[in-house]
Amino acid sequence: MSDHRSRFLRLAIEADALRFGEFVLKSGRTSPYFFNAGHFDSGARLAALAACYADALDTAGTAFDLLFGPAYKGIPLATALACEFARRGRDLPVAFDRKEAKTHGEGGSLIGAPLAGRRVLVVDDVITAGTAVRHALGLITAAGGIPAGIVIALDRQEVIDTDATPRRSAAQAVSAEHGIPVVAVAGLEDLLAFTGENATLSAEQARLGEYRTRYGAA
After folding, report:
1. Which residues have C-beta within 8 Å of that of residue 12, sequence separation ≥ 6?
2. Potential cystine with 12: which of 18, 64, 76, 194 (Cβ 3.0-4.6 Å)?
3. Closest CA to 149 of 180, 186, 111, 171
């Protein structure tokens, strides 16, 4: 496992952003783990998380000119990532959206750098059903931006519909639909490997493996 993946999983567990147990998801499935990026709730934690995002993007080689953070969790994530890239010598513009368009002042639903003509990278925590990220891609296109990719913290790598053929995850579906890469800092496969290498978490591996067998994407 590459360093940024194991480093991210350690950070997520230490921040209580990644927990093990029994969690009922919005889909109704009972999952043996749960991820909440909102627990990266300090400057140090966000900085460490942003470094993992940057390393994953550097490894993937994704080309982009602007960072876009969908409201709400994507806003601090894109901001922290911009700060990390600036620390590394690359000053990137940042933009994000409002949940509701503003009708006074400067108005509109977008804040920050202009998107027109730029290759835009969407920065978010997860892709669950893909609804939110599709909305963000629509905003980007409408503003004249060029969707260049999506980066997320954790890819659950599970199917939306177990009866569908092929068995595609939400991230795979969005990637295929829009013809852009989805880069994940880590995925369920990495979590399985990580728990197998960690004596205190090895008991979780069997339940994670069963969940992947039942819901895992191709």
Report:
1. 18, 35, 40, 153, 154
2. 18
3. 180
Question: Which whole number is the average pLDDT over 73-98?
Answer: 97
Mark whether 104 is an active-site residue: yes
Task: Read off the pLDDT band of 129 (50, 70, 90).
Answer: confident
Contact 8, 49 (CB under 8 A): yes
- Residue 43, C-beta contacts closer than 8 angstroms, at least 6 positions apart: none
Task: pLDDT band for 106, please (50, 70, 90 cuts).
Answer: low
Catalytic residue among 4, 104, 135, 178: 104
From 51, 48, 29, 52, select the one nearest 40 (Cα to Cα). 48
102 catalytically annotated? yes
Report the interhelical angle of 131-142 vs 170-178 (nearest 10°): 20
Dihedral angle computed from the Cα positions of residues 140, 165, 211 and 200, in that order, rounded to the nearest 10 degrees: -60
Contact 52, 106 (CB under 8 A): no
Dist. CA 148–CA 178, nearest whole Å: 10
- What confidence score (pLDDT) does residue 102 get? 56
| 190 has pLDDT over 70 | yes
Q: How far apart are CA 23 and CA 3, in angstroms?
A: 28
Catalytic residue, chosen from 4, 26, 73, 102, is: 102
